[in-house]
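Marked as duplicate of an earlier ticket. Keeping the data here for the record.
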Amino acid sequence: MLTDIALKRLKPKDKMYKVADRDGMYAAVSPTGQIAFRYDYRTNGRRETVTLGRYGDGGLTLAEARDRCLAARKMVAAGKSPAHEKQREKRRLSGTASFGDQGTRWLKEAKMADSTRSMRKAIFDRDILPLWEKRLLAEITPDDLRALCAKVRD
């Protein structure tokens, strides 16, 4: 198990190496001397890794890294991938367009008759927007589209 003193004593080597802590968390030491906390886990039979944060000035303490590891373990137990959730949050913060924004813009700008536009807007507002308004375009999968089409059709 890692301690703060042990982390401060870690020295860089020619290649990146790992020093285990607990619960799947470890410190990864890069050849430049940077120390990052990571967590390895399995989801859907695949091994995945999420970086919890860097150690040192302006970074995480060991206790904060363990707290993040605990939160990531809870996500895995709930069937979610912490790495995918982290990527999704980064995309959301970077201002990636949401489905609601793009759909509304399409309804305004697309060339169609006014009657067609009003019919499509009614369906969009009633069936689609309440479910997908805040979803990012990059998050929507073909399975999501099939499920939505089946719901609207029924």
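See parent ticket for discussion. Residues 114-132 form the longest helix (19 residues).
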